[in-house]
Amino acid sequence: MPILAVTWVTPLAGAVLGASILAPLLALWFLKLRRRRRVVSSTLLWTRSLADLRANAPFQRIRFNLLLLLQVLAVLAFAIALAQPEAEGLGSAGGRHVIMIDRSASMGAIETTDGSGDALDEPVSRLALAKDAAKARVRELLGGGWFSLNASDVMVVAFGARAEIRAPFTDSIASLESAIDGIAPTDESTRVAEAIELARAFTSNQNRADDRGQQTEVDSSDLPTIELYSDGRIADLGKLSLRPGESVVYHRVGSAADNAAVVAISAERPPDAPDRVQVFASVANPAAAPRRVTLQLAVNGTVRAITPDPIEIPAARAAEPGAQDALADGAGVGFVPGRAQVTFRPIEQPSNASIEVAIVEDDALRADDAAIAVVAPAKLLSVLHVGGDGFVVRTLLEGLPVERFNSMDLAQFDAAVEASTLASFDVVVLDAVQPKRLPAGRYLVFGPPPPVEGITAFGEHKGVYARFVREEHPVFRLASLDELFVSKLTAVQADRSFQVIAEAAEGPLVLAYDRADMHVVYVAFDPLDSNWPFQRSFVNFTASAVEYLGRMGDAIASRGLVPGEAIALRLPAGSRDIEVIAPNGVRGKVTADAEGNISWGPVTVAGLHRIEFLAPGAAERAVRLVAVNIFDAAESRIEPLPELRLGNASVQGISVASSRRGALWPWILALGLLVVVVEWWYYQRQVRV
Amino acid sequence: MSAVKPLRRLDDLLDPHLMSRLDAIDVMSRKIFSGKLQGERRSKRRGQSIEFADFRPYVHGDDLRFVDWNIFGRLDRLFLKMFLEEEDLSLVIAVDTSASMRVGDPDAFDYARKVAMALSYVGLVNQHRVSLVGFSAGRIERASNLRGRRKAAEVASWLLRREPEGGSGFEEAMRLVGTTRAGRGVMLVLSDFLFPEGFEKGLAMVAGRGFDLYALQVLAPQVVDPAREGGVTGDLLLVDSETGAETEVTVTPELLRIYKDRLDRLCGSLRNYCTRRDIVHMVVETSTPVETLMLEYLRRRGLLR
Q: Where are the domains of chain B?
């Protein structure tokens, strides 16, 4: 149920007026009314008449009070009008305000109504609505209005996966509006913690530096009011809590809820048919009702396949406590989106290509309706096996359709590392060995953790089962861990540079590490310490992991990037005139290091990014393609949250549409005048003779 | 408040035209009293008037002039003819000179003085003994035993010298009038009868003492109907003209209705009281012309003929 909240532009003036008039008014009523003196022959009859009137009229007191009530009402109306209420419920004016504008992917949803049910003149994005509302709010805070006694300082922060201060605290309307106008849409996920930390840091910095440089306590009254313009779908909201004195006003933007998304795509060349590409996709339905979608497959922009029948995607459901596949929905309750997997028939595509899977039907958020994968040209890999007695892995690798397979022990590997002779191998498989160091490259590691910064072993676990597997990851295609039993698992602690893609109750089972020049898939146990070698999933996993790692050097094939990450590639050493072209036309010049490594980003929009460069000795510019996909079912859940839960606090959302109602105080002033007229009429009616 | 010019002369009190019309009327009493002087009025005593009353046997010492010789001729017995003696009438006019009479337009005090002048004139012309009493604050001032047309100027002068002030002290004033009366007769009390202490005790002082009593309640139009033009409306602080007591009122139609009801009840109780004690009660608004009052109302009530 929407709540009409009110902003008081000049609350002090209204309070002063109310206090200064109400008290005397009541005093006049209860003390003495100024009356005209009139000499009469005798007051005898009058006093007796008054006594009769009071004795015989039980409602006399009520009539008296009615007049007083009208007068009090009129004064209150004037006092309220003087406080200039406006129908927005934005908290008080004055003081400091941090306007935080969500520019994540979900804010790109197209709205046809303003949130209160009124149709817009033309469809606009949520971000545009938020920006308009934020600018209006800036004008309210800094425009002053009549009788304004307060000055405000306003800061503008835009946030998606990361936060950015668009304008520091200022009272310049032009600067703030310019900063708000400059906020560009992104396809990033939504994380507000960084933005709030920025605001807090900015506040504490301002408060702690007094004239003598001494530290002072942060006065809670100086804490800014955070004015959050968002649809409320904020992934990290459940981890936040308000500090004492902090206040948040949640401006709820948008109303659309209709959306489906492609949340995963991968393409691979079947080992037995390297000229073909098989595409897998996963679609998600974050809504509470099931829906049907039609998917199309396009290769290099040309539609090559379309699902013959609509794909039925089940409805999302609330997550059960402790569910691993639950996604945060910003309301403190996890949810599990409905998912459907789609496998397209293999298509002939011997050369490299960008493959796009898209939902045909329109919905509110188009950015997540397509996912792109880039596949490299058909090519066989060179694989190096490093291990001792581990015949299982070696035997398996020998059976793979690779161009070249070598095997060496740990000492030879360390020597080769020192000699820098490993560059010719696409993938190195470390089979239960722990080398001294790892040069840049792509590694599939079994057993001891790789010597990479960010991961440490601290013991082992006995007898564990896989509890959660990120099945959408390419390495787990056709590789179920349901029947996996590990008798001895290396207990590792990994930082955020590692992504856990399979884990047991005791700790991570499989982790992925992706950096600019280093890609690792780490299995935290020796296959010989498990029953895995006896399962088909072990073969599929190892093959997929080698394929996944091996193709990375040529293209980010199946995984791609998500908005907010940086593009990191290794180009031929000596490449120059490198330019990154984003799907929205933004271009960026990049310089490669001596080994040809480049990084650019973070990328903000989903789509196919082109990296054009001039390779040494080449006459024409070469192109690498990088796919960036949203792949965030939580972000695809676009239905705005009616209220936010911040720790124990609940913040009711205020539709930005309500700000269009404008100021309330003229109406209240008119009401006050009307009450005065009624009061005068009533008074005259009473005394008319 | 009154905006009319103050009364300064006899003509202001009594219009010459009215004066000439008053020459033809006399004061009547519903009772027959014994007078002090021979006058133009029937007395209970048999005397020397021309109006026959009765016969009685002659006794020694009777004035032989009143023997009916015709009867003596027929019956050979001496009978004495008895005539009703015509005596003078005592007319007492008590005028309330309290401050409350000064309120209204026309104010009650001037009106009462005009009525008192007119009645006095009637009494003087008809050779009655006219006494004027002014009472306020429990004191009385009097002009007693005036007789004959020539005293009209003196009556007027006395009336013109009176100024209303203070309360009425009605009971005390009537007690003084009742105990110092000079002969029986007709008494008129001209007052608004708006006495905080009530009128009953005051009237009782004079009602049982042989007076043919008339209570003439003189009320200004603004007292009868406070909302009349120039009257009280709105939020007022009413000041009692006699006591200075202040009363805050917000005049509403309901209050006015109650006020009028109160006034009616006051007048009604006065009328009932008077009826029970054989007192003639009349209410007259000061807007009523004195001529109308004298020649119509008072004649109709039997005071004048």
A: 10-33+89-300, 38-87
- CATH number corresponding to A382-552: 3.40.50.880
Q: In this structure, are residues A190 and A229 in contact, taking their beta carbons and an 8 Å threshold?
A: no
Residues in B closer than 8 angstroms to A43, CB to CB, are 238-240, 243, 245-247
Share of residues in chain A with pLDDT > 70 (%): 83
CATH of domain B10-33+89-300: 3.40.50.410
Q: Do A35 and B235 touch (CB under 8 A)?
A: yes
Query: Among all residues of chain A, which has the CA nearest to that of B1?
Result: A39
Instruction: List pLDDT tens digits, range B153-196.
Output: 899 999 999 888 888 788 888 888 888 765 568 888 999 888 88
CA–CA–CA angle A254, A259, A262 (5° rounding): 135
CA distance A266 to A552: 13
Place of tokens 């006896």: A534
Q: Which of B105, B250, B256, B260 to mutate to test the interface with A (most CBs of A within 10 A)?
A: B250
* Nearest residue, CB atoms, A46 vs list B231, B247, B261: B247
Residue spans per domain, chain A:
7-85+667-687, 93-253+641-661, 261-378+631-635, 382-552, 567-628
B contacts of A35 (beta carbons < 8 Å): 235-237, 248
Q: Which residue, among B291, B300, B289, B35, has the nearest Cα to B186 in the 3D structure?
A: B35
Closest residue, chain A, to B265 (C-alpha): A45
Which pLDDT score is estimated for A2?
41
Q: Which residue of A has its CA nearest to B220?
A: A41
Q: Could you tell me if A44 lies within 8 Å of chain B, comparing CB atoms? A: yes
Q: Which of A416, A396, A402, A494 is nearest to A453 (CA)?
A: A494
Q: Render pLDDT for A317-362 as a digit per residue (tens, 0 to 9).
A: 877 766 656 666 555 567 788 888 888 888 888 777 888 899 988 8
Residue A50 touches chain B, beta carbons under 8 Å: yes
Asked if the Cβ–Cβ distance from B241 to A686 is below 8 Å, we say no
A184 touches chain B (CB under 8 A): no
- How far away is chain A from the Cα of B254, in angstroms, using its nearest Cα? 8
Left if phi > 0, otherwise alpha if psi is -120 to 50, otherwise beta: which for B193? left
A40 interface with B at CB cutoff 8 Å = yes
Over pLDDT 70: what percentage of chain B? 86
Q: What is the dihedral of CA B196, B201, B202, B206, to 10 degrees?
A: 170
Whether residues A44 and B247 touch (CB distance < 8 A) is answered with no
Among A228-232, A240-244, A555-559, B74-78, the minimum mean pLDDT is found in A555-559
CATH topology of domain A93-253+641-661: Rossmann fold (3.40.50)
**ipTM of the prediction:** 0.75
- CB contact at 8 A, A286 and A316: yes
Q: Which tokens hold the place of A189?
A: 């996920």
Domain A567-628 sits in CATH 2.60.40: yes
CATH 2.40.10 fits A261-378+631-635, yes or no: no
Query: Are the Cβ atoms of B100 and A688 closer than 8 angstroms?
Result: no
Chain B CB contacts of A54 under 8 Å are: none
- Identical fold, A382-552 and A567-628: no
What is the mean predicted confidence (pLDDT) over B88-107?
85
Distance CA B186, CA A652 (A): 94
Please report, for residues A689, B22, B50, the alpha-carbon distance to residue B254 in angstroms, rounded to integers and kept in the order given. Answer: 10, 44, 63
Q: What is the pLDDT of residues A276-303, one digit of tens each?
A: 888 888 898 888 888 899 999 998 888 8
Mutate to test the interface with B, among A29, A39, A42 (most CBs of B within 10 A): A42
Contacts of A688 in chain B (CB under 8 A): 253
DSSP-assigned states of every residue in A377-433: PS---EEEEEESS-HHHHHHHHTS--SEEEEE-HHHHHHHHHHT--TT-SEEEEES-
Average pLDDT over residues A642-652: 78
